[in-house]
Structure formats: C-alpha cells, structure tokens
Amino acid sequence: MASFPESCVPSPRRIERNMTRRKSATARRREGMADNMPTRALVLPLALSPDQHAMYARLADLYNRVWGSAVSWYDANRTVNAVGAHKALYAGLRDRFPQLPSQFVCNALRDAAGAVRSWNSNHPKRGWSLRASRRKPTVRFDLRTMGLRGNLLTLSSMHGLKRQRFLLPSIPAWFDERYPERRLQAVTLVLDPNGLMARLTLTFRIPKAEPVEGRVLGVDLGMHVLYRDSEGGEYRYPRVQRVRRRYAYDRRTLQEKGTRSARRRLKAMSGREERFIRDVDHRAAKRLADTPGIGVIAFEDLTRIRRLARKGTKTSRRRRSMLNQWPFSQLQEFTAYKAAAKGIQVVMVDPAYTSQQCNRCGYVDKRNRDRARFDCLRCGHSDDADHNAALNIRDRAIQTLGQTQGQGAVNHP
C-alpha cells in the first residue's frame, strides 16, 4: 500500500475546521431557503425603565452612526452589496465604536443595504440619495442578539452589559390562530425620544401555504369605488372620500398659516391620514383574499400605468389623477401577502385598453365607455364600466396563466 508523507495527512484540527466550514455552508443554504419564506410583522408597545431607555438610546445612537456610514458607502459605490460593505467598513467601524457589539455592526450594514434598496425602488428618479439625518432611534436585533421564550423577550445591550429581559403583552389570539408555525426572525426596537415607551416590531417567518385551485378573479381599481371585481363584488368607500376631502382642506389651511405650530399639526395629521388609509387598504385586501373558491387574483400592472400616465393625454390625466388619489400599490401589496397565506396567487396583467375593450366581442373604442357605463358600439353589449374592465383583466390573466402553464386556464362557474 502506498504511503503518504506525514505533511499530506490532515491533522484532526484541520478535519474539524473543514467539517465546521461544511456545516456553515449547509446552514447558509438553509438560510437561503428560509429567505424565500414569507414574513409577517407584529407591532407591540414596550415600556422601558429610565436606565433601560438611556442605555438603548445610546445603543441606537451608535447603531444609527454605523447605519449612516454604510448608507454613504452604498450611495458612493452605487451598490447594495452588504458583503462588500462588510469587507470595506467592518474593521474601521469596530475601531470607531468599540462599545457597540460586533453583531450590531453586522446588523446595521445589512439593515442599511435593505434601506438603500427600498429607497431606490420607491424613488427611481432620486436613487442613491438616501440620507440618514432624520432616522429615528432604531436598533435591529437578529437571532444572535435576542431570544423569545413564550412572552419573555431577551435583548442584547451595550458591550459589557447584561442582556435585558422584557415581559411582552400577550400575542393576539388571531395571530396565534393564523400563524401557528411561525418562527421569530428579527426584532426592531424604535425608541420614543420624548418618553419611556418604545415600539417593538417582531418579524416572523411563516411556512408557505400550498397553492390552491380555484377561479381567477379580475380586479379593477377605481376612483369612486376602490375596486370592483369580475364576479360583481365591490368595495365602496364614501366615508373615505369625505375624510380625505377634510384632510385636504385642513392641510391647505395649515400650509397657508406656515407657523411652527401649524407645521407640527401638519406632521401629526399626515400620520393620522396615513394610518387611516392603511386601515382601509387592509380591510379591502382582506375582503379580496377571503373571496370563496378563488385561486388567482389579477390586477392591472400599476408600473405600466404610471409610465402611460406621463404621456399627457386625456386618458393619462385620468389615470394620473386616480393614482394620486389613492395608494393602489399598497392595496395590491396587502392583497398579495394576505392571499399568499391562503395559497392564492396574485398576478399583474397589461392594463392597456382594459376600460375600452368590450368583454363580449373584443371591440376596442374609447367611445365605448361613458363614465360609469359601458355600451359597445359594435355588438351593443351594455355593462357597468368597471365590471367590464374587471372581466377583461380576468381574461388576460387566464390567457397569461394558460401560456405559462402550458395549458388553458378556465374559470368554472
């Protein structure tokens, strides 16, 4: 038997190190698979003692400084590569902020990458211009820096200090029932600078629901009716229009005053209006996702509508007015994650001519539609204009799904 030189035989220490690397690679692959799992967030209030508030305020200050340095690096290098930022910044940041535990530096680098990515996506004309000057006192904890057992939450603190323990309010029963197999992924702590309270956001991973088979539901979004679907369902919101008109009037009045107190009231009013709109969108999205017997929900692609709305035509002005009156993309986002929890797919279709095309014969003419009524000039078909558009959206989704799946998709009555 051939013998090998002693130097070629790996030592037990090297074998152990290689096995650790293999385990780490396996763990990374598992984490990558977990990244594809949907997440759900739960926001809870958290009361802090004066000492805890002071300590976490200091921790948040250091965390935000690291976060700001990372944002500047991402903007300057036109990248959101957190690995590259870690290689370039980690050692220097550890020297600058020795009191900040190393894992918080890593969390801040990843947190900043996500913030820059989100900013660039939401502000395509102002990309790579995120500024950290107005960031609230925020700290993000991952599995290495926090733990949750029952209602007992433990959070890491400043370097050299013990972990802090908090008894959380009970998890709402509806959250337990809806997501029984959830796993905690991260905790975000946002401090109130004017008091001893904090807002705690618990982010959970949940298993993907198995896809369900069912009908395709087309949904048309509108200005006077929030949505009307292809099966005749609708979500009217006359109170919403009244509330928004009142907010618009109050906003104009306060802007004309221009005083410091008026600006404070404007900021508070903006928050109330945003929360009101989010509540309406949540309710409408839940109603869509709870429609019995559906397997697919189809919307118009709003990104394409926004591009069409820049062309300056009469139709584009109507589209632009619709988009400015309500955050429809938020409604689509809420519907997508509520539907995903039930195994329902959400698809986007080309919005071109959905409001002008006759669903009966396919004839396209802008004169077919007169405000809320649709009367085809070719075949004489009459319908509610929004319902006709929802049927067109449904049919386009069926056609798209049939092409991607290699078979026809049919709606069953």
TrEMBL record:
Q: Which Pfam families match?
A: Cas12f1-like_TNB
Organism, per UniProt?
A: Bifidobacterium adolescentis
* MF term (GO), any: DNA binding
Please verify whether the record's keywords include Manganese. no
**Positions of the UniProt region annotated as Disordered:** 1-32
Q: What is this protein called?
A: Transposase
**Record keyword rRNA-binding present:** no
Keywords of the record: DNA-binding
What are the residue boundaries of the Cas12f1-like TNB domain, all occurrences included? 328-393
Q: Which residues form a coiled coil?
A: none
